[in-house]
Amino acid sequence: MLIQLAWKNLWRNKKRTLIAASSIFFAVVLSVFMRSVQKGSFDYMIHITRSSQPGYIQVHGKEFWDKRSLDQSIVIDSKEQKQFREIPNVTSVVPRLESFSLISFGSATKVASIIGTEPTSEDQMTRLKSKVIAGTYLDNTSDGILVAEGLAKTLKVSVGDSIVLFGQGYQGMTAAALLPVAGIVKFNFPAQNEKSVYLNLHTAQWLFAAPDRITSLSFMIGNIRYLKPITGEIRSVCGNRFEIMTWEEMMPELVQMIQSKIAAASIMLMILYLVVGFGIFATVMMFTNERLREFGMLISIGMRKIRLICVTFIETIFISFIGVAAGSIIGFIIVFYGMRHPIRLTGETAEMMLSYGFEPLLTFDITPALFTDQVVIVTIIALVSAIYPLMFIRRLKPVKALHSL
Amino acid sequence: MPLIELKKICKTYSETKVPVEALRDVDLEIEKGEFSAIVGPSGSGKTTALNIIGGLDDPTSGQIIVDGHDISTLKKDEMINFRLHHIGFVFQAYNLIPVFTARENVEFIMLLQKISKEEREKRAIELLTAVGLADRIDSRPSELSGGQQQRVAVARALASHPSFVLADEPTANLDSKSAISLLELMEVLNHEYGMTFVFSTHDSRVIKRAHRVITLVDGMIASDVLNTSAHEN
Ligand SMILES: Nc1ncnc2c1ncn2[C@@H]1O[C@H](COP(=O)(O)OP(=O)(O)OP(=O)(O)O)[C@@H](O)[C@H]1O
Ligand SMILES: [Mg+2]
């Protein structure tokens, strides 16, 4: 009956209750929406960024990350590579031998980033095959090269042409070769599109006179959640011989950008909830004040204050949670819909995303935390608001309350 | 032993600039089964006296014994509990919970007393019938007239099986016809259930119906007479 009383009390002033509840409703919907897009987009960006080059985790020679020269190349034998591949939740492992060299065709010469890789696992990780716009992708025996579209344009080279690579190999050896262009690949990210040249790992090892050597081993994993345990397992396989870096360490700018965006959005949501919180508090306050005489009557006839406080507490919880319940349902529907139908962006933002190599999509993500966080925040608002009637009733003197006007 | 016993009760309101002596050395005994009115001019201390008897307010000095309990020694929560089980209240206004029906209002006090649901329902209907509201059991206060609301309040006061009912100007907001009929109802309940009623009033027609009339003037009992003519009615 106390719960019944609280519930009925809510509808004394329908409009006010609905306004209070809907302020929470909108806050919840907005937060769920924003957080979902944020999380979805970041996951998407991380996914794209990670699958583009270094992977989620990279094993490489000490100091390679800073010096980037073949002198830091390493040897990981096939037994060890197999051990790496067998770590649970590792979806692919790509060995690469990377260096820079001059690349010439006709009278044009450019500096290119030469990436020797295993075509099959490379495709698994970075979907390189899907980026081929002319010619064919590499197979494991091919000694052709894939030239990035921008670079090909500058050199005026096309499929079937042979181009000269000239640079320095391992331990000061000369690296020079004439190789046929097997295909042209197009990258969204401009820097990548202007510089990259892909060839088979063994071709690169031969070119740079570095048999069996690689500069890095990149790992693709099933889910970012497994990052820590997998890193640990990698370490237990190769010990301290190499440096193991996670994507966060390799891409500090990206991490920083994500963190600052999250911080900005969190502040906005905090302000939103602060405003909503004040609204709820004010509603509860009005609702309490106007019932002074009724409270006086109830205490006079023998209702213990604690029970009355309970009733007002239940009321506050009701007001708040009508909003949370409705907001979560609507928020869920929106997010669920958004997950199936990502919103395609247009305009400036879209162009900016494109220039960083991302498809301009607004992607959503759904996690229980999206909703439980709202519940926690609203519970805090309700608890804080409930302090008012609590203090009010504790101080209430029935005689005065009954005779107040 | 009297049901209610006031011994040298003084009440001084000292929060005001000039302290007000609302009650001065009041000695009063009320027996079980009485139907007594406390009367007197405005500001004479009627409300103060009823509040002290009902344990809603503390006397400045003196002793008050209700139903054999020295209530001035009770702690706040004990006092609320004491009121719940020993005293029925009818106020001038704002007696009822507006969102509850007549029946729910009567049931509510029994709920506070932790009485079982069947018992509550049975007694609520019984009492609402007794106060002449059998057909308004499921009406909300806003759908009832002032007189009907006061009847619900009386039914509620009786529902808790109190030792007595205190009513501070229960008829003040009623037209004279409703006022008389409320008084008649209280009289019947006094007669049939042996319920003790102590009420205050300004209304001379109401005073006429009291069996005992205690007159306060300036916080002191000026007269205390039995109204034999009322008994005969
Ligand atoms: N809370 C209070 N603070 C100060 N003085 C008070 C307070 N309550 C009552 N008084 C004073 O005490 C005296 C008695 O008041 P009380 O309300 O008991 O009179 P009453 O007989 O009930 O009057 P009425 O017929 O107008 O209801 C009055 O002088 C009143 O002004
Ligand atoms: Mg009065």
Report on the structure:
- The complex is a heterodimer of chains A (405) and B (233).
- By secondary structure, chain A is an alpha+beta fold.
- Chain A folds into two domains: 2-49 and 255-402, no CATH class; 57-249, no CATH class.
- Chain A has helices spanning 2-10, 14-52, 64-67, 78-85, 119-126, 149-155, 190-195, 201-207, 227-238, 247-250, 252-289, 292-301, 305-340, 347-355, 368-395, 398-403, and strands at residues 57-60, 90-105, 108-117, 132-135, 145-148, 162-168, 174-185, 196-200, 216-221, 243-246, 343-344, 361-362.
- Chain A has a six-stranded mixed beta barrel, surrounded by four helices. Chain A has a two-stranded antiparallel ribbon with strand order 11-12.
- In chain A, helix 1 crosses helix 13, helix 2 (14-52) runs antiparallel to helix 15 (368-395) and helix 11 (252-289) packs parallel to helix 15.
- The longest helix of chain A has 39 residues, at 14-52.
- The radius of gyration of chain A is 31 Å and the shape is elongated.
- Chain A starts with a helix and ends with a helix.
- Chain B has 233 residues and is of the alpha/beta class.
- Chain B has a single domain, classed as Rossmann fold (3-Layer(aba) Sandwich).
- Chain B has eight helices and ten strands.
- Chain B has helices spanning 46-53, 76-86, 102-112, 117-130, 146-159, 176-193, 204-209, 228-232; strands at residues 4-13, 20-30, 35-39, 61-66, 69-70, 87-90, 164-168, 196-201, 212-217, 220-226.
- In chain B, the strands form two sheets. A six-stranded mixed sheet of chain B has the order 6-7-8-3-9-10, sandwiched between helices. A four-stranded antiparallel sheet of chain B has the order 2-1-4-5, with helices on one face.
- The model of chain B has no long low-confidence stretch (mean pLDDT 91).
- Chain A binds chain B through residues 1, 5, 8-9, 11-12, 293-294, 296-305, 307, 398-399, 402-403, and chain B through 47, 51, 54, 56-57, 77, 80-81, 83-85, 87, 89, 91, 94-95, 97-100, 104, 107-109, 111-113, 156, 160.
- The complex binds adenosine-5'-triphosphate and magnesium ion.
- The site of adenosine-5'-triphosphate has 13 residues of chain B, from strand 2 and helix 1.
